[in-house]
Amino acid sequence: MQDLWQIQYSYLIPLLPLLGACIAGFFGARWLKGQSHWPIWIGVGASAVISISLLFSMLGLWKVAGHEKGASAGHAAAQRSVAAEAASEEPPLAYNKIFFHWITAGDPSGTNSSKFFNADAGFLFDPLTAVMLCVVTGIGFVITVFSAGYMKGEEGYFRFFAYLGLFIFAMTCLVMGNNLVMLYLGWEGVGLCSYLLIGYYYEKPSAREAAKKAFLVNRVGDFNFGLGIMLSFLAFGTITFFSGTPQHTGLLEVAQAPLTAFQQHALRWIPFLLMFGAFGKSAQFPLHVWLPDAMEGPTPVSALIHAATMVTAGVYMIARCGTLFVGNAAAMNTIAAIGCFTALMAGTIALRQFDLKKVFAYSTVSQLGFMFVAVGCLAPVAGVFHLVTHAFFKALLFLSCGVVMHAMAGELDMRKFSGLKRVLPKTRILMLIGCAALAGFPLITSGFYSKDEIVAAAWEKSRFLAALMLFAAFLTAYYSFRLYFRVFEGPEILPSPPENAHGPGHGHGQADGHDAESAHATGHHHNHEPWIMIGPLVVLAIGAIFAGFLNFPERARSLGGFLGQSPSFAQSFNVATRPNVANGRVIPPLPFGQIAAQEELELADKDFATSQHSLHRMLMIVSGLISLLGIYFAYLMHLKDRTAAERLANDFPAVTSALEHKYWIDEIYQNGIVEPLRALGRGFFAMDRIVVDGIVWLISFVPQASGFALKLTTQRGYLQGYAVTMLFGIAVILLVVFL
Amino acid sequence: MTQLALQHYLAVGAILFAIGLIGFMTRRNLIVMFLCTELMFQGVAINLIAFGRFWGNLAGQAFVIFVLVIAAAEASLALGLVVLLFRQRNTLDADAWRDLKG
Fold first, then answer.
1. CA–CA separation, A627 vs A625, rounded Å?
2. Do residues A630 and A473 lie in contact, with contact meaning Cβ atoms separated by under 8 Å?
3. What is the ipTM of this complex?
4. According to CATH, what is the number of the domain B3-92?
5. pLDDT, tens digit (0-9, with 9 covering 90-100), for A132-166
6. How far is B29 from chain A (nearest CA, A)?
7. Measured between beta carbons, which residues in chain B are less than 8 angstroms from residue A715?
């Protein structure tokens, strides 16, 4: 495994985008100008090539390992009970590549009195990392290509691309890091890039506010994440995920060894702390408020950072640290409950949003909720699978939104236009694919397969949870097709060109606004769909359709089986099936990607396995029907009779108002947290002004007053007076010295 | 006639110093005040010479010559300043410069 050239040169994966970002950032303003995308294209493209070839090399190694295992199956049959254990005991597809010791402190001999802290600049290569890397760099590259078309002529073009390169650098560090501190480095790096890119149109006050909001809300989560890292070190003495040595000293390995009382106690709290960090980054319920506002950034940023990659970092982190989580039933239930609640809440809010990007923002929050339900229901494979498919179709939807926005001169309110299928024929088909995938249109879209797996995992946990998830899936289908029918079908309405279309804050270039206007004026059909923007969308659309087959159910060689080779998944399965954790519930190994163990299970309990399969098939039919039902409702309310939705909304004014105000959560935070804190700040300011400044003034008053007194009494300007004073002083000194 | 002892020299020096000090503190005329400071100088110089002779080393006398040279230079400078001050206010009274106290 370590012989792979991709691993030998893996430092290039983060460094090439960083180099590109430096070139674009330092030389863009003066020399590169409108060509600033080249260093980023080359850097991110090269990273993507390395990542994808790494994935294929690892798949190749996995196949070889599988054949060897198959050859020895005859022997294994005799010792079937230990086969699964052996398979998970030596994860063949993981390698720790350490470049240098980054931060070290304490005594390396490892005596008990002083702990040894070591954070390496190192990467962990396992199937999870390889898959995430391909998503990040692959989709990242596609989006940088699109951005060159979308951002053309914008002020600060080079700045945009420099930030994008920096983002890819940080995100690759996040998914490759072999310890929690490297992960945290990337985590904060992507947070910074998110802040910078949300505030890209910094002349616009709302963009500045949104950037600040995103940064501050993320601080709440990141603070807890930091505490979680510290507690992990305190309890286990290491923050490296996976040691790769027979001593099993990695963080993910010690959690399954016999634990001390303190470690057991720490394990009760670590998941909650880490989880809070994940909720902040992945915009889950208490901390979801920043993501819809983050749509102030340019649309490619919304696609890359706030839909496809960065916001899924929380899911990645929980999947990566699975062994710390799965033993803690309370934490897993909390994750599932919060994920389900967020999915429903965001899904309902999306019903009454009219801004295209806001609809998809809430949809992203909702879909992230689905992923959290998956990891909370002990099905990390389903979570990561949905992460991958979601990355494709949500990036596709956001970029399609960008095309619409481009053509409509920055207008995003779906009430102001309709029936764009003549103006944007290619975008219409791409958006239809994206919406179908998001809605989980049965059998031919990726969203169907990934969402279905999550529902199945929820069903394993609780029937009620599965019902709620099915309802959330219904909402998803409804709002995505509501948007599609409103925007692309029906009578053609084009927005009147806004007068201030040339303003920098509209999220589109000056030239584009001009194009749209001239197209209106002459009635001449202008090409709103340049290939530099449509090409990337086609790639994403292909992914949105076919990514679902990566994990086709009941196929041994699937994404799930590959991910199961990751030490994170294999070992969290081991922890989850410990008797004291399982509570009598059988934990199916498939959600952890344990194919070998699945065969075990089938042999051990054929009835159980077959009943599971038929159950899975039934759930597939149900969720497919629910998706179709949602689409049909959207058709009834938004295409057949467009006034039906408004009538329904008017019948329930309270519900409508709650949805349009996003359940007043922003207002609650404003009045419950922001305003009290501001009042407290004002109090402190007054305190500083009156008490602290008062004391300082008083201290400065003492010499002033005494100086004034001396001026009146002693310093009168009589030379003789001074002489007398001097004499007196000398006399005193002499008296003191000699007596 | 008895030999002059160290005490006599020291007494003369002390008297000269005291006369200078009292003169400095009681007179307001700039030139007189300046002369008084010179008197104090000489009182100290006599002290130095007396001690030098008493201990039989030349350092004291050499030092006094040094002091006298400095005093001469300083006297020329000071008298020049007095002339300038007189030209400003047409008086030699030190109290004319009270407003310099700030």
1. 5
2. yes
3. 0.82
4. 1.10.287.3510
5. 999 999 999 999 999 998 888 888 889 999 999 99
6. 11
7. 101-102
